[in-house]
Hints:
The complex is a heterodimer of chains A (143) and B (441).
Chain A: H1 3-28, H2 40-51, E1 59-60, E2 63-64, H3 82-89, H4 103-119, E3 128-129, E4 135-136
Chain B: H1 5-32, H2 43-73, H3 81-103, H4 120-141, H5 147-165, H6 172-175, H7 178-212, H8 221-236, H9 249-257, H10 262-276, H11 279-284, H12 286-308, H13 312-318, H14 322-351, H15 356-392, H16 399-405, H17 407-440
Helix pairs in contact in B: 1-2, 1-3, 1-17, 2-3, 2-7, 2-14, 3-4, 4-5, 5-7, 5-8, 7-8, 7-14, 8-10, 10-12, 12-14, 12-15, 14-15, 14-17, 15-17
GO molecular function (chain A): electron transfer activity; heme binding; metal ion binding
Keywords (chain A): Heme, Iron, Membrane, Metal-binding, Transmembrane, Transmembrane helix
InterPro entries (chain A): Cyt_c-like_dom, Cyt_c-like_dom_sf
Amino acid sequence: MTEKTKYNIAIISILLILFVVYNGFVYTSKENANPVILTEQALHGQRLWQENNCWSCHQTYGLGGYLGPDLTNVYSAKNKGPQYIKAFLNSGVKTMPKFNFSESEKEALVSYLKFVDSTGYYPNYHAIFKPSGWIELEYKNEK
Amino acid sequence: MKNKTSTLFLITALLALLMGVAFGLLAALQYLIPEFLKDLLPFHKMRPFHVTTVITWIVLCATGSIYFYLSQVEKFKLFSDKLMKTHFIVFLITGIGIYLSYFFGKMEGREYLAFTPILTIPILFGWLLFGINYFKTMLKQVKNWPVYYWMWGTGIVFMMIHLTEAHLWLMPYFREHVIKDLTVQWKSYGSFVGSWNMLVYGISIYVMAKIKGDHAIGRGKLAFFFYFLGLTNLMFGWAHHTYIVPTLPWIRYVAYGVSMTEWIVLGYMIYEWRRSLTKTEKDSYPLAYRFLVTTDFWIFVNLIIALLFSIPAINFFTHGTHITVAHSMGTTIGINTSILFASLLFIVSRISAFTKKEETSIKRSLLGFNISLFLFFMALLVAGARRSHWMYAGNDTSFSNMQESLFWVYMAFFVFGITLTTSMVFIGLPILRKLINGLRL
């Protein structure tokens, strides 16, 4: 093994150690001050969300497809909420597929979106902009 | 041609590209005509077809190129030809499985990896075979690795790590915690892209070194600095995707510190390489050279955008809009696809030469490709700006009104998508013909 190879392996090893420690922190630390844990019903809703590719068109926290609106706070938004969500689910309006969810499946999806809603705000209208370019997000349930 | 498996990877990759852009066009059409194919192949099914197929293009073309370089250009004796064939067959069968999974609606996965998660096992197995073959071949036959060998080895290993990480949600510990789950999911996607960039950027340095006939390009301090910077980004630079997710601030601070500086170095390397080339060297691989030069332009454009939205205060407004899509199209098409086309043209030039007519057609198509991509990119920026304005300053109108106001922008996006696809077809088909002819030799 050449000196240069040893040198490269040493740098990669240091980066790998940092990577392992970093991953350990990301995986094990509490995600924020008030973590939300999904219930069985909400987990069922999450499964339905995935199986029906809701993320293809919708986002949570701006992550997902852009054909439909972001649903992070649809549960608590003014003039929206559980009934609004349920009404949309099987409506088949415009690009929205005409799903055939049962009442319990609708409840599960609403429950999932309720939990997502309780984790924070998106868009985060009350975020504070710092001169350094940093932004302090408004966290839910912290005030 | 002695070993045909690497060519089969490349042919499959090109077919995936042509199919992937066709799926993309059909999906774009659903923005304009919501009822189009709604019953047969609605958008929520079309998008996974498009995304998976274009990712397949990048991955298979990079893989096939690396196998080709090692076995046909460097003339190394592969550790096992059988492993390479098995790798191809595993990926091919899994690909068919993924399409069937999509067609029958068995999509229990998540964005970008929508297929039923069990299919990740053969994908990981394929990468493992590639890794064994690669390291067993290289460790035995090359002592002092140039940077691209390090990059390819790193890309293979991290592909496996991040594919696994992208499925941590299968464990209740992750999926029960919404924010942690979202954070880890996007961490893995960011690093997944970083991993394939290792393969693709390694290819760009390899092709540059071959065109110049100067192996010092892959051995200099700058090249290794670029590699370690890229590796740092791959490991820690993913979180610009999740600035807006209310996770712990330290995770977001780390992301802010590690931005996309690697592009500055790659852009500089291509610029310096281009400057140092003699006319004879340029003329030895005229098409591959042109595509690599194109890459530099797209690096510059995407670098500006990426650096801007690695600043949280700007990311705040661009996140969740088509500006992010513009960035990903600029990188996957403008940078990755240009480099991979350069690789294919370099490979094809070693099989048989293009006629003057074919060469002129490819050069013209490259011009069409760049102009179309630029306009396509601009249409996405306009759509993103409008959406951002609606989110933060015009939320008194409904989402569907905002979408309707973008009709002509989506129309432009679709039209430029057609011209972009046409250019790619005119570039891809002659290459495909040469590769298929190469199989017969």
